[in-house]
Amino acid sequence: MSFLVAAARKQGVSGYIGDGHAQWCAVHRNDAARLIRLGLEQAPAGTRLHAVAEEAIPTTAIAEAIGQWLAIPVVALAPENAGEHFGFVASFFAQTMTASAARTRELMFWTPTGPTLVEDILGGAHADN
Q1: What pLDDT score does 129 carry?
Q2: For residues 78-82, average pLDDT
């Protein structure tokens, strides 16, 4: 998130790539930390855990939250111009990167309780970025 916020500040607009239908998963850092502790204390050896609270957040929603928080316009960027706006993060922001934590929740009795990514952005969690 810090790279996306920094790019928006630098460019004066919050962007998303193409039609903005790429999606990301997210988890609040406190929920991730709690799962790491549970994993270290209780998970069977070799277990893969997925720290995911939200499975599919459209990149448009992320860009809109950043734009709203910074009070700047939100724009669609052509894929060929994304590198100029985002730098190396462009290739990641253009991709759908989703996952599910259904098995992790069941195995570890873990339920995320933190704010959503959009709530976190709008609440200023990335103000120092």
Answers
A1: 54
A2: 95
